[in-house]
Amino acid sequence: MILASKSWGRRLVLQQTGIPFDCVPAEIDERALEREIRAEGGGPDAVALGLARAKALQISAGSPDCFVLGADQVASCEGRLFGKPKDLPAAAEQLSLLSGRVHRLHSAVALARGGIVGFETVSHADLTMRPLSADFLQAYLGTVGEAALGSAGAYQIEGLGVHLFSEISGDHWTILGLPLLPVLEALRRESALAG
Predict the structure, then answer these.
(1) 195 within domain boundaries
(2) What is the CATH number of the domain that holds 138?
(3) What is the pLDDT of residue 195?
(4) CA–CA separation, 8 and 147 (whole Å)
(5) How far is Cα 70 from Cα 51, in angstroms, rounded to an integer?
(6) Could you give the number of structural domains in the chain?
(7) Contact 44/34 with Cβ under 8 angstroms?
(8) Ramachandran region of residue 68, left (φ > 0), alpha (ψ -120 to 50) or beta?
(9) Is pLDDT of 191 > 90?
(10) Is 121 helix (H, G, I), strand (E, B) or coil?
(11) E runs forming strands in the chain
């Protein structure tokens, strides 16, 4: 199996399953694809799924005999979409907008083989961010630095980002960006895992 992602969180999740895999990050223009999906009227689920599908298909084209797992995640709050921030000022803006509000994570996966997606799904988690002062945000971003640029919403909840929240509803793997239980079930159906 190949994981078409550079996310260390997704790699860690997959490593914990004991499934042998290689990591070959897909190189797609995520922002351009997101704009295209949104222009066609696609919401957060469609964006996350479109990105996951594109990653899986790109890597599958060069490795047709392997199962390729593409994954992506976006956050949404009050009609706005949040992806990975491009820089620390953008991260501060995202965190300010999410402060004191509930937002939803849309975590999508697509499993391809032979250039065909055989399974895809989107899972959700709802997170309540506690109200954050400007001073706290500055101190937080000063501590986590560039790590804030690696996740939708500008936090990595598996690390210091956990301090930003007052309530979380959803499974652990969805929050980390890889809805694991549906993926394992799909692999069993494909006889890629023992039943």
Answers:
(1) no
(2) 3.90.950.10
(3) 66
(4) 11
(5) 8
(6) 1
(7) no
(8) beta
(9) no
(10) strand
(11) 2-3, 22-23, 68-77, 80-82, 102-113, 116-129, 165-169
pLDDT per residue as tens digits for the range 147-170: 899 888 888 888 899 999 999 999
Q: What six digits make up the tokens of 75?
A: 């956050």
pLDDT at 121 over 70: yes
Find the catalytic residue in 22, 29, 65, 72: 72
Q: What is the mean pLDDT of residues 64-87?
A: 94
Q: Which residue has the tokens 């399974």?
A: 119
- Residue 17, token pair as written in the block: 């399953």
Band of residue 146 on the pLDDT scale cut at 50, 70, 90: very high
The whole domain housing 99 covers 2-189
Question: Region 135-147: what's the mean pLDDT?
Answer: 94
pTM of the model: 0.92
What's the Cα-to-Cα distance from 133 to each of 12, 145, 149, 151, rounded to whole Å? 32, 18, 20, 21
**Average of per-residue pLDDT across 61-78:** 96
> For this structure, is 72 an active site residue?
yes
Bridge-based pairing state of the strands 165-169 and 22-23: unpaired
Q: Is residue 194 domain-resident?
A: no
Taking residues 96-106, what's their average pLDDT? Answer: 96
Residues of 117-155 as b/e, b for ≥16 C-beta within 10 angstroms? bebbbbbbbebebeebeeeebeebbeebeebbbbbbbbb
The torsion angle over the Cα atoms of residues 171, 77, 10 and 6, rounded to 10 degrees, is: 180
